[in-house]
Design goal:
Elements (H helix, E strand, L loop, with lengths): L21 H7 L7 H4 L5 E6 L5 H14 L7 E6 H5 L9 H23 L7 H4 L3 H6 L5 H19 L5 H15 L4 E6 L9 H20 L3 E8 H6 L13 E3 L4 H19 L14 H6 L6 E3 L2 E3 L1 H9 L3 H17 L6 H23 L6 H6 L7 E2 L1 H13 L18 H10 L3 E3 L20 H4 L5 E3 L1 H4 L7
Parallel strand pairs: 1-4, 1-5, 2-3, 3-4
Antiparallel strand pairs: 6-7, 8-10, 9-10
Helix pairs in contact: 1-3, 5-10, 8-9, 14-15, 15-16, 18-19
InterPro entries: Sll1717-like (IPR059206)
């Protein structure tokens, strides 16, 4: 049997899908029927909604790859940006929804203008050249977006020529005409990743982010040849669910939810991709990921294992600890395989147990990086569960939070939680439910209930009556010294 280099960090792909080589990403990407609308050229608008680590950025990268290499897209103009970079192009103060919606439209057009400038090697970064006025936007309705933007830039050339020494107006006009001739009929695909970066559930952020969605919806259907794809975290989208302007958005949302079978195929395909890259002439390189997944796993793992008191496939343990998150699955497998390399053996349950403390710490650190801006004392809040139980009723949760976190402090001494003043212990419990540290104990269908499944569950009377049981997720237990 082929021997793999278990300490090769590329064995399970790159945890950050947006940093992965597009060719490598394409080799192991698992498709999902839910993604059809996201890829469809005829769907002008689509937003991916998922928890952190589920593959939102990866899906955006896969689309980026397809747009570049698949003939059916006809070589469109692709502009990929982050939410932070768009926010950095302007000043988004204010709460007036109509103003913010129009301002977002201006900023998006500004980003496209800057992209055009980079393509023709001419800086169009000044507001005079790049910032589109509202009246100019109105004039572009029902028109080709690129044609409208270039006509506007050409109209500004005389102003630029009078202010810039040595500037040759005819040169820029020729560059713009050539660009328009080559691209007039092409679609513009705007790919926006992490529009909700550093989101706090305050009115300012709600207006700022919800107005972005209103703006792209308006732009997509006001002008021709514009497609927009964006990503947003599930908890943020859930918090925006009451915004009136977003009541027609369900049709544009794609939810990423991975089944156990899909997660298994994803892991098998990553291993197969590695084998095909590193050992292309081997017998194993001819395996099929959906048929030979057990053979692929046996290149790295010892399977079956003793799990939950019975013999089970090794993937059952991997799936439980990774919580259906592809990024967590890759991190866990990489850590365990590096540990196995040190012992000169394949990965067994022993190696998983050896890395669970560090893995849990990494998951804790991910929570802090993702959510500390929502609650500055998050690290101490998480540590309140250290050496405690794995399961709690509502009353038991209140007791542990009161004794280990509040410690007699007044309510005024507790920081604002996700943009709202702290009032009572239930607010802290709701927050740890919201960020995924705890979830409702699996029911008969063996599924945890997460905040995005039922955002109001923790505040429900059913919970206050202690009729629900909450559990600290298994991936955190070893690090927090919780048995079970």
């Amino acid at each position: 049997m082929l021997r793999l280099k278990l300490n090769d960090r590329s064995l399970f792909g790159n945890d950050a899908g947006e940093d992965e080589s597009l060719e490598v990403l394409n080799s192991y990407f698992i498709e999902n029927d839910e993604f059809d609308d996201f890829y469809d050229d005829e769907h002008r608008l689509c937003v991916v909604n998922a928890r952190k680590g589920m593959g939102k950025s990866t899906l955006l990268s896969k689309l980026d790859y397809d747009l570049a290499f698949k003939k059916e897209y006809n070589s469109p103009i692709v502009i990929r940006v982050t939410g932070n970079s768009l926010l950095g192009l302007g000043d988004f103060n204010g709460k007036d929804s109509a103003y913010l919606e129009n301002y977002w439209k201006q900023i998006i057009c500004k980003e496209i203008n800057i992209h055009i400038g980079k393509t023709i090697n001419f800086a169009l970064t000044s507001d005079e050249m790049s910032m589109v006025e509202i009246s100019e936007l109105e004039g572009m309705k029902s028109k080709n977006l690129i044609g409208g933007l270039i006509s506007r830039i050409k109209g500004k050339i005389p102003v630029l020529g009078s202010e810039t020494q040595g500037f040759q107006p005819e040169k820029l006009e020729n560059l713009l005409n050539n660009y328009l001739e080559e691209n007039s009929d092409k679609k513009v695909w705007l790919l926006v990743d992490d529009i909700d970066a550093k989101y706090i559930d305050s009115e300012d952020f709600q207006y700022r982010i919800s107005s972005f969605f209103s703006a792209v919806r308006g732009l997509c259907f006001d002008v021709k040849n514009l497609n927009v794809r964006a990503t947003v975290r599930s908890d943020v989208w859930t918090n925006l669910r009451h915004v009136e302007d977003l009541d027609k958005w369900d049709q544009y949302i794609v939810n990423i939810v991975w089944t156990k079978k899909q997660m298994r195929e994803m892991l098998a395909k990553k291993i197969l991709s590695y084998v095909q890259r590193k050992h292309p002439l081997s017998l194993e390189a001819k395996y099929k990921y959906d048929r030979d997944y057990n053979k692929l796993f046996q290149l790295i793992f010892i399977s079956p294992i003793k799990w939950a008191g019975k013999e089970a496939p090794v993937f059952d343990a991997i799936n439980a600890f990774s919580n259906h998150r592809p990024r967590s699955m890759g991190q866990l497998c990489r850590m365990a395989s590096i540990q196995a390399h040190k012992s000169r053996c394949k990965v067994s349950l022993n190696q998983f147990n050896e890395v669970l403390t560090k893995y849990g710490q990494n998951r804790r650190d991910d929570l802090i990086k993702e959510h500390q801006h929502q609650f500055p004392e998050l690290e101490n809040l998480i540590d309140s569960f250290r050496a405690g139980q794995k399961e709690y009723t509502f009353s038991e949760l209140e007791m542990i939070l009161d004794s280990k976190f509040i410690k007699g402090r007044d309510a005024s001494d507790i920081p604002v939680i996700d943009g709202k003043p702290y009032c009572e212990l239930i607010d802290l419990g709701h927050f740890v439910y919201k960020i995924g540290l705890i979830s409702k104990l699996p029911d008969s269908s063996q599924k945890f209930t997460y905040y995005t499944d039922d955002p109001d569950l923790f505040y429900s009377q059913q919970n206050r009556n202690n009729d629900l049981t909450w559990t600290v997720h298994p991936s955190y237990r070893k690090y927090l010294n919780i048995n079970g």
